[in-house]
Design brief:
The chain is of the alpha/beta class and about 350 residues long.
Length: about 350
């Protein structure tokens, strides 16, 4: 594991229950942070990044660095013959992501990409309902994420407000990975964005009260045109307070699905049928139960090239997000060059990979 920041705590908790994944070494530019992260964990060595990349005991690198370093670290790991699994977003630019995939193909190694939350019971139960025709033909979806900004709680929020951050590249992967899982790949986008504040004030930690610059859009709206013909409307904001909307709604000819927060693995899926008078909660019909961050690594370890949280999916979503931002700047529709297969569904029978 390279990078021992805030998100690493969630992965570390999962390593205790993933049957086919073993943490053997960690690295961070701040060695003391790496040491603190694995304190009390027997057999886990603290190395430099360079030492970890050439260590023969390491076959896969989990890349938890800041987004701007994702591609650089992935490429170094691939050059060392390691599989890689990157936190989201897959890279900052679409070109960087393409370089990672090309290098992996040439080296014959696997590439995975967060978020793996789409493998949980929430998104997978919704997918089953759509595939079984519960809402008829899918027509459209709404995906909404509204928050006043991560600087209120994150002690080092700088990277959220530079290119590679912002609400779209930070939180968009959860929602767009889910939308592609539910409705298939995206063929074109139309976007608009705004940036109403030039700086933010850190609200917690040792830097509380310090202001940081904002150099990326902090409210982004996009329309995603899926290859299936369905249209998804995306609202990602670090500028507003809250929303009463379901995180994702999928509208079909025979009903509407309310899909839980794609930043979580679980949550109830509800349907309002054309013939019904109220919402009804659906039983769990798929997805890894009691999953946590790192289930994508478990999926990679057991499925190999058939991994569901794949680099190809991460790259497609990255291209979609950057295209939304390009469209916001230009005012024009942007076509998506890449496509990707919907990842294979996680069947209910195969659920208990953890717990």
């Amino acid at each position: 594991m390279i990078g021992c920041g805030v998100i690493s705590k969630q992965y570390l908790a999962s390593f205790d229950v993933l049957p086919d994944v073993q943490l053997v070494a960690v690295a961070d530019l701040d060695r003391s942070r790496a040491e603190a992260a694995v304190e009390g964990r027997e057999g886990v060595r603290v190395l430099s990044v360079e030492e970890l990349l050439v260590d023969p005991e390491v076959d896969t690198v989990l890349n938890l660095t800041i987004p701007a370093a994702h591609a650089e670290v992935d490429l170094k790991a691939i050059a060392a013959g390691k599989n890689v699994y990157s936190e989201k977003p897959f890279a900052v630019t679409t070109e960087e992501g393409a370089q990672v995939l090309a290098a992996a193909r040439e080296a014959g190694v696997l590439v995975g990409s967060a978020p793996d939350t789409v493998l949980g019971t929430g998104t997978q139960t919704a997918r089953t309902a759509i595939d079984q025709g519960v809402i008829g033909a899918p027509v459209a979806a709404m995906a909404t994420m509204v928050t006043p900004g991560h600087e209120r709680w994150h002690p080092q929020p700088d990277f959220y407000y530079v290119p590679g951050g912002g609400p779209l590249l930070d939180m968009g992967p959860y929602y767009i990975h889910a939308l592609v899982t539910l409705l298939g790949p995206v063929s074109a986008v139309i976007g608009a964005g705004s940036r109403l504040r030039s700086e933010r004030t850190i609200g917690s930690g040792p830097r509380e009260g310090e202001t940081i610059p904002v150099t990326t859009d902090t409210h982004v709206t996009g329309v995603l045109v899926h290859e299936s013909g369905a249209l998804s409307t995306l609202v990602m904001s670090f500028d507003a307070v809250a929303s009463s909307a379901h995180p994702i709604e999928v509208h079909g000819t025979e009903g509407t699905l309310a899909v839980p927060d794609p930043n979580r693995f679980d949550g109830d899926v509800a349907v309002r049928r054309l013939s019904g008078a109220d919402w009804e909660t659906l039983p769990v019909t798929g997805g890894y139960r009691e999953a946590g961050r790192g289930i994508g690594l478990q999926d990679m370890a057991t499925r190999g090239e058939g991994l569901r949280a794949s680099g190809e999916l991460g790259q497609h979503v990255l291209e979609v997000m950057n295209a939304v931002l390009d469209s916001a700047r230009s005012g024009h529709r942007v076509e998506i060059a890449s496509t990707v297969e919907r990842p294979e569904a996680v069947a209910a029978e195969g659920v208990p990979a953890q717990g």
